[in-house]
Design a protein that fits this description.
Length: 232
């Protein structure tokens, strides 16, 4: 008869958390920065086909780090939920808070289940408000925990060093070019000495109130990113 080893629930949860954190830390960081006219998402991602940053709905953006297939499944589920809710009720009923709650339930259930491995992902969900005081950004962890982000946030990679730089150099009310520059410089703080992140290796998108269309998400081209980094 095979003897089964006992593992305490505390140790099991610790092992699952360590597993998820190690997977997430292997990639590069993603930063989100709130600026005067919206929210900017900045990721180091040389791929032009596999996006870390995407649109979920009219005024809602999504950014993720970790395993691509896992956060892509979550992104698709978020798009479907948003479309269903907007069609069934009203487009204004689709909110970042509602999506964050749905993601939290999904990630929390997977993390606490012993039948499958935890997702190796972290997520930002951002919603553009009518003014800066109404902007909302939520950070979803691998275990389903949710944090309300104010001003800026970082996830993935060596996020502590990147977030420390942003904490020292971020100021409220930045214009979009300044917000992109401080985020890109912060992403290069993950090593010592700091490195310069090439514009060709960046993926940047904004939710902006200056866009006249109902859909406020805009992905920046390589030329747009280069211009933002060199703007005075």
């Amino acid at each position: 008869m095979t003897q089964q080893f006992y593992v305490s629930p505390e140790q099991l949860m610790k092992d699952r958390a360590d597993f998820a954190r190690k997977g997430i830390s292997r990639g590069r960081s993603v930063a989100v920065v709130q600026y005067a006219d919206g929210i900017v998402f900045v990721a180091e991602n040389p791929s032009r086909a596999l996006h870390k940053i995407s649109e979920i709905y009219d005024r809602i953006g999504f950014a993720a780090v970790g395993r691509y297939n896992e956060f892509e499944n979550l992104r698709i589920a978020g798009v479907r939920l948003a479309d269903l809710r907007g069609y069934s009720y009203d487009r204004r009923d689709v909110t970042a808070r509602g999506l964050a709650n749905a993601y939290a339930q999904t990630l929390g259930t997977i993390f606490s289940s012993g039948a499958e491995k935890p997702y190796e992902v972290e997520i930002f969900v951002g919603e553009l408000g009518d003014d800066a005081s109404q902007d909302q950004v939520y950070r979803l962890m691998y275990d389903g925990s949710v944090a309300d982000i104010q001003g800026f946030g970082v996830m993935g990679g060596q996020s502590e060093q990147v977030e420390a730089y942003l904490g020292e150099h971020y100021t409220p009310g930045l214009d979009v070019n300044a917000a992109i520059r401080v985020a890109v410089t912060a992403l290069g703080q993950d090593v010592d000495p700091p490195r310069e992140v090439e514009s060709s290796a960046l993926e940047v998108a904004v939710l902006t109130r200056t866009r006249p269309q109902p859909r406020k998400f805009r992905r920046l081209t390589d030329e747009d990113i280069a211009a933002s980094l060199t703007a005075s």
